[in-house]
């Protein structure tokens, strides 16, 4: 059976290529771009933001970075996302550029979306990241809000989510595919998955009410799932912990969503 068109499998990078490179053209949408670079100590990467804003997330490792206005000698603190400490990140507007040099092995996520240049470049330190626990029963997860809607950006929303073994996440099923704010906003979304231990996998389903889209995927370490529309729950398996980095963007920078009616009871008092 062929892989789902919504699943981008991890490809071990060679000759400076990205481990993941999701463009709007590849995804068939308008807003979200997502890239993962795996760097060895001493490696350098440079990019121009052009008409996009960037959120650079140090998923793991230490690095130095320069841009038109920033000069940071030692960014980073965690060596694995499964340390569950907030990451260092960098926000860059359009018409900027950056050079990042890896001081250790580095896993760098590059989140992209259209920008008007409203906000200046800044470092998002761990202390700037809001953390929260969500859910109950077997629907619990731990959330680290890197770039939520109440922090300055033109388009991007960026968040990390940790889900323990045997729990569901992005559940009860919800969607954000209608441009009907404040009831719902249209937001494209990518899920960059990491699994601990790394030989494990999670299940993710992306589906619409009418089932014109209905994809179920076994997702392995460092794979990316693209969510153009519909509901998109994740389920973990016994023995394996899930991390994913979400990137969302659309015409309105608000996270307004609709629960799937059949499963919304899990939010209520009858589910413990």
UniProtKB/TrEMBL annotation:
GO terms, biological process: inositol catabolic process
PANTHER family referenced in this protein's UniProt entry, alphabetically: 5-DEOXY-GLUCURONATE ISOMERASE
InterPro entries in alphabetical order: Deoxy-glucuronate_isom_IolB (IPR024203), KduI/IolB_isomerase (IPR021120), RmlC-like_jellyroll (IPR014710), RmlC_Cupin_sf (IPR011051)
GO molecular function: glucuronate isomerase activity
Keyword field: Isomerase
Name of the protein: 5-deoxy-glucuronate isomerase
Keyword Isomerase in record: yes
Pfam families for this protein: KduI (PF04962)
């Amino acid at each position: 059976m062929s892989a789902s068109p919504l699943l981008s499998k991890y490809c071990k990078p060679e000759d400076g290529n990205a481990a993941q490179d999701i463009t709007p053209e590849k995804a068939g949408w308008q807003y979200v771009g997502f890239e993962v670079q795996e760097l060895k100590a001493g490696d350098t990467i440079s990019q121009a933001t052009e008409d996009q804003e960037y959120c650079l997330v140090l998923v793991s490792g230490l690095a130095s970075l320069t841009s038109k206005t920033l000069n940071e000698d030692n960014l980073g603190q965690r060596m694995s996302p499964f340390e569950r400490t907030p990451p260092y990140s960098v926000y860059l507007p359009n018409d900027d550029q950056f050079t990042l040099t890896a001081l250790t092995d580095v896993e760098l996520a590059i989140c992209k979306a259209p920008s008007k240049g409203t906000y200046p470049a800044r470092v998002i330190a761990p202390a700037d990241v809001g953390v929260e626990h969500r859910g109950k029963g077997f629907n619990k997860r731990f959330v680290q809000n890197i770039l939520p809607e109440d922090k300055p950006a033109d388009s991007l929303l960026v968040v990390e989510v940790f889900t323990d073994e045997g729990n569901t996440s992005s559940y009860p099923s919800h969607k954000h595919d209608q441009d009907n704010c404040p009831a719902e906003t249209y937001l494209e979304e990518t899920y960059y998955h990491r699994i601990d231990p790394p030989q494990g996998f999670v299940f993710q389903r992306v589906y619409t009410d009418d089932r014109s889209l209905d994809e179920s995927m076994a997702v392995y370490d460092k794979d990316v799932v693209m969510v153009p529309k519909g509901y998109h729950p994740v389920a973990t398996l016994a023995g394996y912990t899930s991390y994913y980095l979400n990137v969302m963007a659309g015409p309105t920078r608000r996270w307004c969503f609709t629960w799937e009616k059949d499963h919304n009871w899990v939010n209520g008092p009858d589910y413990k």
